[in-house]
Design a protein that fits this description.
By secondary structure, this protein is mostly helical. The chain has a single domain (55-412), classed as Na+/H+ antiporter like fold, CATH 1.20.1530.20. The protein has helices at 4-25, 29-40, 57-75, 81-108, 114-123, 129-139, 143-171, 178-208, 215-236, 241-256, 258-283, 288-291, 295-316, 325-333, 339-355, 360-388, 398-401, 405-412.
């Protein structure tokens, strides 16, 4: 068996090499990170084998993902009622229609059984900030649209993970019915948010009492509080650590205000490091044997899901004058899945195998196929589409001057970014 030190070294090197290639070529970093993971993993040369890490990989991935979500929460400042209403309405509509559509396509096109199709529908709700945020920054999307996409991911990613776990328990027979799923969903999401908010308030009070030049200590305390809050709430409320990480970041960002931007610069560097190693590591765990049984039905399922998002955004945009047709079009096309989606699918497939339920490999394969196609296709085409629609920040600011209502509204808000 390969030494674990060498495995981690190869994973870090592969991720850093992908980031370098992205910088030199201008290609989307998330696409290259994913491709590098496939190349060095089970689908390629087999140099990186995540299964060697055993169960130690799961908690490590959870803590690193919580760091990424905490960083996203620090930046989640939805200034202006138009922006807030847009985010809330789109998230609610997509939460319902996305779950129904994802489950139906998975059953009808990819051939998953209904219990596993519902699990896939919940997993596919997550449009991860680990992918969306780098993509938005690299393509220089107008700030209002970027905030909507990032907020959607930060809300639906933890919610989708909790819902998927409950639906998995329902499929395994551990829950009595949909009523149990609804009650536990509210309990775990609400409990995670409350615990995270309390941890965030406690952290704010401590950070305010530290001298301005104690940046290193502030970073260490932030990580310590974040990880103990996330791991602690996970013990009592499984998967509630993700909403706790988001709410803690939001509270710290809002309460510290300008001081939060200094902290965020440090957190953002660590979050980027987490993305750099996690994406290749999780992609390396995928083999072509898990994708090939899906055939064209799996590909059709993913494409149908991508096109179905346009209908969801149209429904979610009803009554929102801040969203013009160009904004709806770009929002409809940017929905890549990320690290949480991959991590949840890998964990669930293992639990299904242990329970002896058929279809675990098909579920994991379909989830990773969704990640591959959404990250690959949208990562390359979204920047071109955004430029054609005039929805990117231009140095001459002509794009902003002629931009849609939502983007202008955000720019005019105090503190809008």
């Amino acid at each position: 068996m390969k030494p674990l030190e060498l495995l981690w070294g190869e994973a870090f090197f592969a991720g850093s090499l992908a980031q370098l290639l992205a910088r030199l070529s201008g290609l989307p970093a998330v696409v290259l990170l994913l491709a590098t993971g496939l190349l060095v993993g089970r689908a390629g040369f087999g140099w990186v084998q995540p299964e060697s890490l055993g169960r130690g990989l799961e908690p490590l991935v959870g803590l690193l993902v919580s760091l990424v979500l905490f960083d996203g929460g620090l930046n989640l400042r939805l200034a202006g009622r138009d922006l807030q209403r847009t985010v809330v309405q789109l998230v609610l509509v997509r939460g319902v229609l996305g779950l129904l559509g994802g489950a139906w396509f998975a059953h009808q096109l990819a051939g998953l059984s209904w219990p596993l199709a519902w699990v896939f529908g919940a997993i596919a709700l997550a449009t991860g900030p680990t992918v969306v945020t780098p993509m938005v920054k690299q393509m220089r999307l107008l700030p209002g649209l970027g905030k909507v996409l990032e907020a959607e991911g930060l809300i639906l990613e933890p919610a989708g993970a909790v819902l998927a776990l409950l639906l998995l328990q329902l499929a395994l027979g551990d829950l009595g019915g949909w009523q149990d799923v609804a009650v536990l969903l509210l309990l775990r999401l609400g409990g995670g948010v409350l615990v995270g908010a309390f941890g965030g308030l406690l952290l704010v009070e401590v950070l305010r009492r530290l001298p301005a030049d104690a940046d290193a200590l502030k970073l260490q305390l932030s990580l310590g509080v974040l990880f103990v809050v996330v791991s602690g709430v996970q013990v009592f409320l499984p998967e509630a650590g993700l909403p706790a990480a988001v709410s803690a970041g939001v509270v710290v960002g809002l309460r510290l205000d300008e001081q939060a931007s200094q902290l965020d610069e440090l957190i953002a560097q660590l979050a980027q490091l987490a993305i750099t190693v996690l994406f290749p590591l999780l992609a390396a765990d995928l083999s072509w044997s898990e994708l090939s049984p899906l055939g064209w039905g799996g590909v059709a399922c993913v494409f149908a899901l991508m096109l179905f998002r346009w209908l969801v955004i149209q429904a979610g945009g009803i009554g929102l004058p801040a969203l013009a047709w160009r904004e709806k079009l770009i929002l409809s096309w940017i929905a890549p899945r990320g690290i949480v989606t991959a991590a949840v699918a890998s964990l669930f497939a293992l639990q299904l195998d242990q329970a002896g339920i058929p279809g675990a490999g098909a579920l994991k394969g379909l989830v990773f196929l969704t990640i591959l196609l959404t990250v690959g296709i949208q990562g390359f085409t979204a920047p071109v589409l955004a430029r054609r629609l005039g929805l990117v920040v231009d140095d001459s600011e002509t794009a902003l001057d002629s931009g849609p209502v939502l983007a202008k509204a955000v720019e005019q808000q105090p503190g809008g970014q």
